[in-house]
Amino acid sequence: MLKERAMEDPRSVNSPRRILSFSKNRRATVSFLDPDDKTSGFGVSGEHGPKPSEVYGFVGSISTVVATVIFLVWAYVPEPWLHSIGLFYYPSRYWALAVPTYVMVTVVLAIGFYIGLNFMATPPPTSFNTMFDEFSKEPLSSVPSTEGDELPIEPISDIGINQINELMFNNLR
After folding, report:
1. Could you tell me which residue, 43 or 83, shows the higher pLDDT?
2. Which of 35, 47, 61, 67 has the fewest CB atoms within 10 Å around its CB?
3. What is d(CA 19, CA 17) in angstroms, rounded to the nearest whole number?
4. Domain count, the chain
């Protein structure tokens, strides 16, 4: 009875070992649940229990460690030792060096290809496309009337290249 009331109360705090009920009508009550009670729902159903992404991450990390250990044993243990434990069919030791080398060369070429594509997609520095595009906004030429000491905030716009050159290089003359 007490367990059912505590589970229905929206202000109760669920814990694997106890349920604390903080009700305004009565003082806090503590009831210890039977650890073998599967109807409590702790870690068994729906929203309780591990998330699939956590399970996939755990299985992936364990699989990576196991695969690394198997690779290192295959690459470094002498052949007579492998024959003594009954392993006769395994890839040539050539692949212990070839596969990592091929992977590293592929990564370096992919990075080089990516950088080359970015250079090809970028317009030259003399192109007006580096200064203006479809999102460019010209500043408004109308000066708003100023009443009092306060000036309004100007709308967002791009600064023209002539203004930038004047600000940066005017003092050098």
Report:
1. 83
2. 47
3. 7
4. 2
* Cα dist from 146 to 33, 111, 149, whole Å: 74, 55, 7
Nearest-CA neighbor of 9 among 34, 17, 18, 20? Answer: 20
Alpha helices in the chain (DSSP H): 2-8, 52-76, 79-84, 94-121, 161-169
- Whether residue 38 is contained in a domain is answered as no
**Distance between CA 133 and CA 135 in Å, rounded?**
5
58 falls within a domain: yes
Helix axes 52-76, 94-121, angle to 10 degrees: 130
Give the range of the structural domain holding residue 97, as residue numbers without chain letter.
Answer: 92-131
Q: Let me know if residue 150 belongs to a domain.
A: no
Q: Which residue has the tokens 């409590």?
A: 40
Q: pLDDT, tens digit, for every residue of 76-131? A: 899 899 899 888 888 888 998 999 999 999 999 999 999 999 999 998 888 888 77
Q: Can you give the C-alpha Rg of the chain in angstroms?
A: 35
Q: Is residue 85 in a domain? A: yes
